[in-house]
Amino acid sequence: MSARFAIRPGSTSPLGSTPSENGTNFAIFSERASKVELCLFDQSGHNEIARIPLYRDEQGIWHIFIRGVGQGQLYGYRVYGNYNPKKGEYFNPNKLLLDPYAKSLFGEFNWGNSHKSDDAFRQLDSASDMPKCKVVSLPHYEGIKPNIPWHKTVIYECHVKGATQLYRSIPEELRGTYLGLAHPNFIWHLKSLGVTAIELLPVHSFISEAFLPERELSNYWGYNTLNFFTPHLAYTHTKQEQEFQQMVSVLHEAGIEVIIDVVFNHTAEGNEQGPTLSLRGIDNQAYYRLQQDNFAYYVNDTGCGNTLNISHPKSLQLVMDSLRHWVQVYGVDGFRFDLASILGRDQDGFKKHHTFFQTLAQDPILKGIKLIAEPWDLAIDGYQLGNYVAPWREWNDQYRDTVRSFWRGDMSMLPGFARFFHGSSHLFEKKGRSVTSSINFITAHDGFTLADLVSYNNKHNLANKEDNRDGHDHNRSYNWGAEGVTDDSDIAALRMRAQKNFLLTLCLSSGVPMLSAGSEVSHSQGGNNNAYCQDNEISWINWQIDKNTDIQQHALYQFISRALKLRSEFSLYRQNHFIHDDDPRFSVTWLNEHGALMQDSDWHNAEGHCLGYLMEDIQDDKALLLLFNASSKNVMFQLPSQEAHHCWRIRLYTFSNERDDECLAPGQTLLLNSHSAWVLSSHIKMPASKQESEDASQTFNLTKQGV
């Protein structure tokens, strides 16, 4: 290239492109490259105007300072070295590579022939099919964060586009964007529901896998990362990264935190047949885990073709620098780590004190950030639920499965249901962790929606064009008599009650509740339990109830709102510790279907489907009674009749929306309808003496069998 630039050796830190008044510094790591060229492009991104060799230092940092090059400059890299895939080497100057530290991208990715792995296509230049990196200087976030404690946190997991694409009270041009989530009408929707944090599916720049465009599909969820520092621009209105920062600021002003789902376990470069886009062509052996007996193949603990080598110092630095960037520049409040067990694994397996966890724990910028693990991956030792350390929280899939099975009426579920409802102490307490360590959920982006969980016995994934082979086969779902859509009013009523049963359980379990977006309006995906490739009406939440009904009038929206208000009313849910029989403030009692104390025979009754949970708060003079009847028969339940209780008020129940706040006398018999859940509350009288308090405690405490 003939263009001339004033150049000199640059700084090796920070990595990436760093503009200043006089020019821009470029720095990139490659331990094994023989030569690195910086490629500059004109403002169209189509014409390469210069190739400039970089200087190398002794630690494998390639660097240069170019005078007169400033913000807005488009660039990429070409990296030279050996091309020998059998030895794990993919250096190829024909491939334009993205800077792993790029803070802005320009242009679109295209699955052209230059990305094919065949020898014939290896000689093709990929620049025309690649987005370009853009030199930018982004201001740090200056908003005030809500800093909501875990015990007050209610998470709403949603997709940026799917949450608002069909939300009719948001201006059409903002639907499906970051600013759509920040629109006052959607914020009001979240606040009225009781949400304190949104957890966004991946917002790092991502691309579709090669096979999806061939099927006229695309990657919708976003678990196929192209770059760890840039927001996905398809979710912007003006194609500016600052919109993400604006969204966070507006949500923070409303008291709502922002957690983002991050994918540091693999990248979009896939397996050995995948494209060379960035890390593979820069230093494949440093950034990826390769099979030790054959460097031609990747370790695939992710099921996505490759696994990031988090044990390498520069891979670790890349992840840590990305996390700090999203906190400092975009103001996010936390991260949910996809397949988090991979981040704690080296060649010898998973370690809860892996270098990554230690590095994260000591980082002053990330102190206080919410950390959520999806505590599994596909390796032999991949399932690690309960094995993380504070301050980590974990997605509790055992809670999900047990609650689903209980309400489906499976046998022998009472002990497990009680354990998980009461906070999953058997998983977390022995390690000295908080009762908020468990992220409780019934549904999430992966799997059936709440409506489909009660409408389908089987997955219906034909729209994914994999002959219905993809997705889970063990959904623990029940269709209540008909598969899918039905005009049967009795089945519809049962399904509505079943959804309420799940929601009541979720909202009033100890731990941190996580709602899946759309649950409040009974959103269905038509039985598709793996809608990762459905960027259409299958996945977009259908908020349309009818022309004359507001979203907030939906029965489930109102039910969730009331349940979460009840949760905020009781101090039990504001504690960080697990409640046991010797607690000085709270007394918890488990009751059988007759209202009597649960006995060993009750816990071990395989056909038992009814359970009562009585919590008394001595300090606040309040009692909370939850009743669960997962059986197919009505049950006559005798309410607690101790003198300490005033009348029992019916606060919420799933059989009907009627009888709210009706008062029942202590000792009165209550008809628990089949497949229903109830919430009652009462004020209690303080005992006249400590001895009376101890006597009352003895009366109500229970040696719980494994609870």
TrEMBL record:
Residues 153-567 form the Glycosyl hydrolase family 13 catalytic domain. Keywords: Glycosidase, Hydrolase. It comes from the Bacteria. GO terms for biological process: glycogen catabolic process. GO terms for molecular function: amylo-alpha-1,6-glucosidase activity. Transmembrane segments: none annotated. Pfam families: Alpha-amylase, CBM_48. CDD domains: AmyAc_Glg_debranch, E_set_GDE_Isoamylase_N. Belongs to the glycosyl hydrolase 13 family. NCBIfam families: glgX_debranch (TIGR02100). PANTHER family: GLYCOGEN DEBRANCHING ENZYME. This is Glycosyl hydrolase family 13 catalytic domain-containing protein.
